[in-house]
Design brief:
Blueprint: H1 13-44, H2 62-91, E1 98-105, E2 108-112, E3 118-120, E4 122-126, E5 131-137, E6 142-146, E7 151-155, E8 161-165, E9 171-177, E10 189-195, H3 197-205, H4 208-214, H5 218-228, E11 254-256, E12 262-264, H6 267-275
Parallel strand pairs: 1-5, 4-10
Antiparallel strand pairs: 1-2, 2-3, 5-8, 6-7, 6-9, 9-10, 11-12
Helix pairs in contact: 1-2
């Protein structure tokens, strides 16, 4: 039933799906009953040719009014009760959860682990342990969503947030941003990789990626930093316009600021633009 739902990969997922199915079934039932009754009465008591009498005036029906007030109220109380109960369960922090910092920025997800290890676009967690994600945005509002875990949290630039889930099976799962955040919002994706505790411990201690970075050429390292530091949010590599000037053939370029002053893109200009990006705005 309801095979269109994502895979259930966390402890809370079956309960969330059950409540969703309950609301769906109730909604479909009353839609069919109410719309069906409307269609029936509209057809059954439509005005026919040769009939010119008024319908009788009905002042009300106390029994029906009590029923259609009481029943929806009880249904709302039922849904609200389970909604609050499941929400409290989702927000309850267990002892010794795996804490991971999540940073959102246009248009990428960055993750920082307890030992200082950092990853981009890949979140690795152990199976069977509660995971606590501490979220923060570096620019605008984003929304961190893992469908298979049935968890979602708005990621704000003004405050830290948190969300909890406990994976129950290993595998790879999709992570999305579900708050429109600009031009490349559609591409703000990541992968959640759930592994065994032993594999997670080995992965956490593996610093080969940092060693590989130290062996990169300046061009390769620059490309990685361009992606990691979020430069792509304002600066293109192909000359196309964005918020800031394109990086294509930037070094040595001469141009004009919005206030009429001129510039040459040398080392000093680049350093000032990195440290004080709004000090001088390029014209156009």
């Amino acid at each position: 039933m309801f095979d269109f739902m994502p895979e259930q990969a966390s402890t809370i997922a079956p309960k969330i799906d059950w409540l969703n199915h309950l609301v769906t079934v109730i909604s479909v039932f009353f839609t069919v009953v109410i719309v069906g009754a409307m269609i029936y009465f509209a057809v059954r008591y439509r005005k026919r040719g040769g009939q010119d009498h008024e319908t009788p005036r009905i002042e009300g029906n106390g029994f029906l009014e009590v029923v259609w007030t009481t029943v929806p109220t009880l249904i709302c109380i039922l849904i609200g009760y389970y909604g609050v109960a499941f929400y409290r369960e989702m927000r309850a922090e267990e002892s010794n959860p795996v804490e991971i910092n999540v940073w959102g920025q246009k248009w990428r997800w960055d993750f920082e682990y307890p030992n200082g290890k950092k990853t981009n676009a890949e979140l690795v967690v152990p199976v069977g342990r509660q995971v606590k994600l501490i979220t923060r945005s570096r620019d605008v509002i984003h929304s961190f969503f893992i469908p298979a875990m049935r968890v979602k949290r708005d990621v704000l630039p003004t405050e830290y947030g948190s969300l909890y889930f406990t994976p129950i099976k290993t595998g790879d799962y999709n992570v999305f941003c579900t708050e429109y955040c600009g031009q490349d919002h559609w591409d703000m994706l990541a992968k959640l990789r759930v592994v065994s505790q032993a594999e997670y411990d080995r992965w956490l201690q593996d610093r080969s990626a940092e060693l590989e970075m130290s062996r990169m050429s300046p061009v390769e390292l620059g490309k990685q930093l361009y992606n990691e530091k979020g430069c792509l949010a304002c600066h293109s590599l192909d000359g196309s316009p964005r918020v800031g000037p394109s990086f294509l053939k930037l070094y040595g370029r001469e141009g004009e600021f919005a206030d009429g002053a001129t510039y040459k893109a040398d080392e000093n200009y680049i350093q000032e633009s990195v440290l004080h990006p709004n000090k001088h705005i390029v014209k156009g």
